[in-house]
Amino acid sequence: MAKRELPKEVYCETENSDEEFCFDSLNTDSDIESDNDCSDSSSDIVPVKRRLSQLVMSSDSEVEENDENENSNINEFTTWRNIVGPNVPVHCTEPIDFFRLFFTDTLLETIVLETNKYAKNKIEQQRLSDRSTWNNWVDVTKEELAAFLSVILNMSTIPVPDMKYYWTKKHVGNIPFFRNTFRRGRFLQIFWMLHLNENVSSDTNDVRTRIQKVKNFIDYIDDARTGYIYAMLPYYGSVSTECLIRPDLPVSSRIVLQLYHKLLTANPKAKGYHIFTDRYFTGIPLAQELLKLNCYLTGTLNTNRKYVPAMIKKPALTKNNTVAAYRSGDILLLAWKDKRIITILSSYDTSATTTIERRVKQGNTISIIKPTVITNYNMNKGGIDKADQLASSYCFMRKSCKWWRKIFFWGLEVSAINSYILYKVSTRRENRTPMSHFMFVRKLVEQLVGDFRDGASSKPGRPSTSDKEERLNGKLHILRHCEDVKSKDCIVCSNRKIRGGRRQTNYFCDTCNRKPGLHIGDCFERYHTMEKYKI
Question: Strand pairing of 341-346 and 296-300?
């Protein structure tokens, strides 16, 4: 049987080199036949010492046939849970319920313990002046720390150039929430004394010692019950890479393998996971190692990476020929010409393409051919981009002499973001419309602060942002007789906007920060039991 003639543009020649990694040719029905079957007399046959690499081209009218067996070795996805994806406990309905999955009571108690211990040791070591702010230090409680976190989260939604402006009393920029929740001095006391782990060494120049300040905190939220933040690997410089597995591989590959091994430690039989990476982490050696662990890799690729063949580094792509594909076993390298050339690696997808519609400037649409591996990558990588977008929307970052504070506040924000993601998953499963990210954070702030109030009492007549929570908290409220003033307008039945509508009383609620005037009986009961109490 005569060998059919191959057009020169369908393949290219790649000479043997010193590279350790070597791609095989694509094995399809239409592929070129083995060099061993070649006739010596054929003028278009490449010598045995050379390898052939197929260049799969696409055009507006025809798409090259894909290998039917490209994805025949796909592992069935298995995990230790029956349901793939976020598993939300049934009791989680409110924002604080989701947040507590990450910032648990145990974590709060640990931070309270370490903060109080650190403050005690720090104050005992100092000679304090009579006017020192540390003379009136009292230990932090769990409720106070929760309120502190709520203030931090609220600060992220209301950015100002300096923290002191949150406590301003001027009409422009006045935000009563912060003054009513904390005195500025007390808030700064907690901010300065905040501590996450016991100092085990006095050598502050030792990087390993400095890492311990925040390591336990990261390890804790890393092991959250939902597994949503499953693995973190903070980078502290070269000391972070010393303990990574596989020192024979590049650091970028070792980081991904280290994170995946954390998952395998919890679930040794797991297989079929699919990791999506950006161009910094993606590499052929990493894809090979993950395949040995029954895990797939898809990611954009720097063409200057080791073992990338020349035909992918500089593909001969044109307007009508937009795709170049190169496969070795289960690993696919693909270059696609869009507005610029995009190079991607995948150990899962095939070189299949699909036609999509794209809108152009004039409002018209054009049809373009796009590889499915690019579509799948954009769809799955979007989750990380969405998380980054949420993190940048409401971000609390302040200059601090203590570097680890940034990591702590970042961990707080990530916990809030993942809480919101879980909340959206839960509400959509129940066919309910979720609240916006902003409203979720605001609601979480309200629930974290609860009934805690350590701020200065508001002036008479000035409304407090916490008025509703105070008067409807179901606790005992004390009614007292006015002594400083003769009488007050009753907040329930008095209305000065209408003629003869003013109603005064000699009693007020001493428990509420607002100190509202109230008649004994119905007005007092109405104010403390009804949301809309005004008559």
Answer: antiparallel
If you average pLDDT over residues 495-509, what whole number do you get? 89
Q: Is the pLDDT of residue 130 over 90?
A: no
Q: Any bridge partners for residue 182, and if so which?
A: 454
pLDDT, tens digit, for every residue of 268-312?
777 888 888 889 999 999 999 999 998 999 999 999 988 899 889
Q: What are phi and psi of 195, to 5 degrees?
A: -145, 145
* 144: nearest Cα among 181, 105, 103, 100: 181
Instruction: Specify whether the CB–CB gap between 415 and 221 falls below 8 A.
Output: yes
Question: What does the alpha-carbon distance between residue 523 and residue 48 come to, in Å, rounded to a whole number?
Answer: 99
Virtual CA dihedral for 297, 302, 306, 311, nearest 10 degrees? Answer: 100
Q: Are 90 and 127 in contact (CB under 8 A)?
A: no
Instruction: Give the strand order in the sheet containing 323-328.
Output: 274-277, 296-300, 341-346, 331-337, 323-328
Burial class (CB in 10 A: 0-12, 13-18, 19+), 457: middle
Q: Over the chain, what is the mean pLDDT?
A: 75
Q: Convert the pLDDT of each residue in 437-490 to its tens digit.
A: 899 999 999 999 988 988 654 444 444 445 666 788 888 898 988 876 678 889
487, 505 contact by CB (below 8 A) = yes
User: What integer is the mean pLDDT of 417-425?
Assistant: 86
pLDDT at residue 167 tops 70: yes
Pairing of strands 296-300, 274-277: parallel
Measure the CA–CA gap between 534 and 526, rounded to whole angstroms. 8
- Amino acid, res. 75: N
Q: At what angle do helices 207-222 and 404-429 cross, to 10 degrees?
A: 10
Nearby residues of 135 by Cβ (< 8 Å), 6 or more positions away: 128
Average pLDDT estimate for 78-106: 73
Roughly what angle, to the nearest 10 degrees, separates helices 142-157 and 184-193?
A: 100
Q: What is the CA radius of gyration of the chain?
A: 32
pLDDT over threshold 70, residue 366: yes
Confidence of residue 381 (pLDDT cuts 50, 70, 90): confident
- Provide the residue count of the chain: 535
The CA-based dihedral angle spanning residues 432, 384, 415, 150, taken in that order and rounded to the nearest 10 degrees: -80
The CA distance from 138 to 185, in Å, is 12
* Cα–Cα dist 224/227, whole Å: 5
| Residue 490 DSSP symbol | B
Hey, what's the torsion of the CAs at 130, 131, 133, 136, to 10 degrees?
Answer: 50
pLDDT confidence of residue 344: 94
Give exposure, 288-321, as e/b (b: 16+ Cβ within 10 Å): bbbbeebbbbbbbbebebebbbebbeebebeeeb
